[in-house]
Write a structure and sequence with these properties.
22% helix; globular; Lipocalin; 227 residues; 8-stranded antiparallel β-barrel
């Protein structure tokens, strides 16, 4: 059976209707273009006013870089905490805080943290640190620390990041943080760090996206346990 053509015949040309249709399309095009330009202008204006670290809103930048190389034998020894972002691990610390690192024969590092509590007593935690290799950066200052029992060391969750983000040539001042920018410490060999140096460390941390407006200043003379 032959295919039956059911298409309707084209409507006759209506000059007035066609002109009206063209005018309508032209108007819509102009209005749409104006709205698009207005939206683009507003977006650029908003982009210029986005708050950055200097405005108190941490800016999550590119992945953090660590110092490389770091000589762990030179890094070992006693460090005094000068400032930190608040964290649950040091919630009870009300006085001086120290961290002592001792390299061990197996390549790990013993970590001994001590802080003075509000009642004057000292709280001490002993843990272990291990180096995390970084491709193309031998000796990079990227470590992991755990304070859980050794038999739980096989669990990734018990290890916390310890990244050395800034370290002076004399190994006297160290800026330590975590890649998620939730933890930050300023450490120094001296019990009290001069304000200008401390501020320089915090200013640098701000450029990395840390919310340094929330830091707690902790540097002070260290008392002897029992005194």
């Amino acid at each position: 059976m032959p295919f039956r053509d059911t298409r309707s015949a084209p409507a006759p040309f209506d000059d007035q209707a066609e002109s009206l249709s063209i005018a309508t399309l032209a108007t819509a095009f102009c209005v749409g273009g104006a709205l698009t330009l207005l939206a683009m202008s507003t977006a650029r204006s908003n982009a210029q006013t986005i708050a950055g670290p200097a405005d108190g809103a941490p800016l999550m930048r590119a992945p953090l870089q660590v110092v490389a190389p770091v000589d762990l034998k030179r890094y070992a020894g006693l460090w005094h905490e000068q400032a930190r972002l608040p964290n649950r691990f040091e919630k009870s610390c009300a006085g001086p805080v120290t961290a002592e690192y001792t390299p061990l024969p197996d390549g790990t590092v013993e970590v001994r943290n001590r802080c003075q509590q509000a009642d004057g007593q000292f709280d001490e935690s002993i843990g272990s640190a291990r180096v995390v290799p970084v491709a193309g950066q031998p000796g990079a200052g990227r470590l992991e620390v755990r304070f859980a029992p050794a038999w739980l060391g096989w669990l990734p969750v018990v290890w916390g990041d310890y990244w050395i983000l800034k370290l002076d040539r004399d190994y006297q001042v160290s800026l330590v943080g975590t890649p998620n920018r939730q933890y930050l410490w300023v450490l120094s060999r001296s019990p009290v760090l001069d304000p200008a140096t401390l501020q320089a460390e915090l200013d640098y941390a701000r450029t990395l996206g840390f919310d340094v407006d929330k830091v707690v200043l902790t540097g002070s003379p260290v008392a002897t346990p029992g005194t």
